[in-house]
C-alpha cells in the first residue's frame, strides 16, 4: 500500500486509511457490529494507498482481548 511500519504503527488507525465513504460505513456499521458480535466478516471497502491510489479491499475483523490485544 506504499506505507512503511514507521508511517503506521502508533500513528494511524485502520479507519484513517479508508476513503471517506468507506470510513463512514466503517464507523456506522462495522464498529457497532464489532462491539455487538466481536467480529465482522467480508465487508467491502476502499483504502487509499500512500501515493493516493484507491484499492478495493475485503475486510474481516475480530476483536481480541487480554495480553494478545492490539489497540485500534
Give the SSE map:
Blueprint: H1 5-8, H2 20-37, E1 39-48, E2 54-62
Antiparallel strand pairs: 1-2
Detailed description of the structure:
By secondary structure, this protein is an alpha+beta fold. The protein has one domain. The chain contains two helices and two strands, in the order H-H-E-E. The protein has helices spanning 5-8, 20-37, and strands at residues 39-48, 54-62. A two-stranded antiparallel ribbon has the order 1-2. A hairpin with a 5-residue loop joins strand 1 and strand 2 (54-62). The longest helix has 18 residues, at 20-37. It is globular. The two termini are 19 Å apart. The model has no long low-confidence stretch (mean pLDDT 87).
Features:
72 residues, two-stranded antiparallel sheet, 31% helix
Strand count: 2
Uncertain spans: none
Instruction: Work out the strand percent.
Output: 25-35%
What's the order of the H and E elements?
HHEE
Query: Distance N terminus to C terminus?
Result: 19 Å
For the residues shown, what is the average pLDDT?
Answer: 87
Q: What's the domain count?
A: 1
Report the helical percentage. 25-40%
DSSP helical segment count: 2
Main beta sheet strand tally, sense and closure: 2 strands, antiparallel
Give a nutshell description of this structure.
By secondary structure, this protein is of the alpha+beta class.
Amino acid at each position: 500500500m506504499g506505507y512503511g511500519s514507521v508511517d503506521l504503527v502508533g500513528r494511524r488507525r485502520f479507519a484513517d486509511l479508508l476513503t471517506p465513504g468507506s470510513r463512514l460505513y466503517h464507523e456506522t456499521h462495522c464498529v457497532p457490529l464489532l462491539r455487538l458480535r466481536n467480529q465482522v466478516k467480508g465487508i467491502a471497502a476502499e483504502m487509499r494507498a500512500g501515493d493516493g491510489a484507491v484499492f478495493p479491499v475485503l475486510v474481516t475483523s475480530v476483536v481480541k482481548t487480554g495480553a494478545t490485544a492490539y489497540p485500534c
